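Example record

One chain of 397 residues, shown exactly as stored in the release files.
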Amino acid sequence: MWVGRQVVLGVTGGIACYKSCYLLRRLTDAGARVDVILTQGAAEFVRPATFEALSGRAVFTSLWQSGQALAHIHLAQDADLVIVAPATANFIARVAHGMADDLLSAVLLARTGPVLLAPAMNDAMFAAPPTQANLALLRQRGFAMVGPEIGPLAEGPSERPGRMSEPDTILHHAIRQLRTRPPLAGRRLLITAGPTREAIDPVRIVTNRSSGKMGYRLAQAAWHRGAEVRLISGPSGETPPVGVELQRVETTMELENAVRTALPTADVLVMAAAPADYRPQQTADGKRPREAGGLMLALEPTSDILASTRSLRKPGMLTVGFALETGNATAKGYEKLKRKGLDLIVVNDELEPGAGAEVDTNRVTILFRDGDQRDIPLANKADVAEAILDAMESRLG
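Predicted structure tokens for this chain:
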């Protein structure tokens, strides 16, 4: 993603600029070539030598650096992305009104490509009408924003936005700026992930081994590509994807109801969840003691969500299913694809080493309604998610 990319990282004079060091490290470790521009205020907080050591490149600090008379033009035109983190209230105001009295503001005035600002300031300064007006003006001009967030500020706790977003969050937004493209850009994706749980009693459950890893990786990767993503997740320990609307559910019935509600406005449905196929016919009100002896459960099948919501799919919707099998996976996958009216189905075998549930890797076969087939070799689930999205994009008009 970042190898060979050229990034300009602008750092302005706020206490949050210490976080920019970590952001710089993340970018360079990922393979980006980063030119750092420090404003005079930023250099009062963190010295240029720190950024030079982390980037391996000379740091820009002034319009008047010897031999750099046209640096503001070259930096503005050559970069794939300009990130300003932190972006102070003063800097935002100057840029909004077209000022170019230092190197960083001059770069932005000459910039025609994507710019990502990470505002950071006192919460009252962020809420102030002039700041909000300046931010609105920059959004109208195409500037992207990340944050600010609610959290502790230099002067103490706060319950209002002002704190700069964390470097990893900024990095995800930066990826989205570079990867947004047709045909996923602007599409509304509904993705399900994880298991569901059916109660035996207030303590015990019937469930399965799904971790939600595949669905979460798909949701994050789709958002990186510019989609609007709603992720409906059963119980999972995975970190919520940045930028994604996350709705949590517990039971298969809750999952079905959530899908029913969201489906009419979705352009793409990706059913990566593994709902429990059975639930107890009766749920006990209290925990049954072990001393009561053996326990026999009468189970009944849960709803087939893909089948029960089929009539809610809007015309032209792309529908993607998943099939985790144990043997003869491809044949079973084709049968499920046809029976459930899918456009694609992602099939894998739980018995194959390194694939399936509770692991970070997967090997899948993607089957298409028109008979096409793509075999994705064993890889980490983030890379598998990218391959699945590539296959989906090939079928989107």
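Notes: The radius of gyration is 25 Å.
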